[in-house]
Amino acid sequence: MFTHICLETIGRVLLRQGEGVIDAKEISRCLFYNSRQPLLTTSHTILEEYSAQFDHLNARWESYESWRRLGDLSSSLFALGYHQQLESSGPIPPFLRSLRQAAFACSYSADKNVSIFLGRPPRISRKFCHFRQLSLDAYYSYDWAADSQLDLFADTRWAALCAILKEEIIVELFGEERFDNRVEKASRIQNTAELQWSSLPKHFRLDMPMKSCDRSAAELDLMLGIKLNYLHVLFLQHLALVRRVSEPDTQLRNIAQEILSLVVEAVLFKDHLVHSGTSLTWKVVYYGLAAAGVICLSLLQNQYSLEHELAAAPKILRDLGVLVAEIEYGTLVYKEDANYALLAGATQTIKNILDNISRSKLDQRRLNVQAPDATAQDDPELGSASWDLWGTGNLQDFDTNFWLMLAEHPLTFNT
Fold first, then answer.
1. Domains of the chain: which residue ranges?
2. Disulfide: which of 12, 130, 263, 337 matches 85 by Cβ 3.0-4.6 Å?
3. What's the average model confidence in pLDDT over 336-341?
4. CA dihedral 103, 108, 109, 113 (to 10 degrees)
């Protein structure tokens, strides 16, 4: 079916070109010539092409070259008219119209995400674009058919829906000076985000641990991106309501904790994921580091209440530690990767915070269990007599009994 549609499109092109201008033989000749281009190389051209491709694929996300290419893409979209109403753009095949819609949606969402990542203004404004959202068949509608297929087109459409809300947050929330107006607009955006999430087909939503999902690696990666995009909208919405970034509120911390937990789970589960959408490294940098930044600010400000710290802080520290270890030991990115420096700098800061927190907590535990007077030295739990079993003569192996004995040490109590 798809082949017939493509042939129909080629036929339309040939008819519009007129007789004697281009024919099937010329098309075939061009296709054959282009297909054998990789064979027409020498040892010098191979190295040059490899270097060019490596520089293109390995460009840093924060580099000027990447930012310039995204600007060229934005200009091309407006020049081609992809920002206009494509539903009534002439008698074009449905697959070509869908492809154009997806191309614009992907570019629109990339513009918002990269702008947020770099802290620069977006270049594709919604007020100059057409987003039809009034019917089920509309590309930017909140409603989805129950039997919608989870693929790259669905992921692109969802990313565009989230990007629309992100643009509203950037323009209407961060640009609003009156806090009361900002709260009202933020409430509306949050309701829209939650409505969009609840309207998604159930098989699109990641509502359980990834290891429990009976889905293919490609589908699991798409579900991960869909969930992170939704949480990122809520993250930005609550971030806009914080009076001081150095003092995040409870809701923002909870969302950041959920994002970080999901990113760390993806990092640990990376061998079972296929990067069908954005890469895992981008997810870690864009979503994970933003969430880790809010959490680190909370830890430095010591804003976790006692109840919340007992329940959440250990897991937060574990997630941060896993993220640091994966990047530090090169299992996620290599040192020669262009974006390694960006990750390494952030993880070094996180590592220093974790080291200071662990050191201070361990010192506090030692002070708490230290005997205040001589009578406490005879305490069966804290005295040296109960730990005579740890001599080298009795330590045979690190078996089950070893860990049971170690669990009785006062410094291992989860208090």
1. 1-37, 69-141, 164-338
2. 130
3. 79
4. 130
